[in-house]
């Protein structure tokens, strides 16, 4: 699933009560599992000068990169953090950790070739979902349509629930990278890999 979708799902479910603090925490939690990947891709392409096609065809699937993805998408890491938040009754941490756990769960259900080891550190087993959010061989085009509709729905729901324009602007800014290409071109092409 694309990162903006993760962020909006986390916000819609875990920003409770809906205020700027829980909204920001949930959006950050939805983003957090992908931050190491973004950093590694940027470092490889911009600093090390490795061609983008090599990063996504070779480095992305290397053991060292997959080891990082196992940690940042681990059900146990995010579940433990959520458990701690619930135990300590910390709303902000609950919003952050809950959104991070939902991100890991959504990726579990929507990644085939690029699936993660989400049972780390207990197991290195990888579930290869029959659905891929991007690969047309595994319903990627159909899922892309669903994902855009989901983002429109979540964005509308959050904007409807939020009272302040600045909070609504934050939600719209998160949705924009996914919705703008569709609105401008009428195509899902270019959405994959956010």
From TrEMBL:
Keywords from the named record: Membrane, Transmembrane, Transmembrane helix
What name is this protein filed under?
Answer: Cobalamin biosynthesis protein CobQ
Question: Which positions, given as ranges, span the membrane?
Answer: 65-84, 91-110, 142-162, 169-191
Source organism's superkingdom? Bacteria
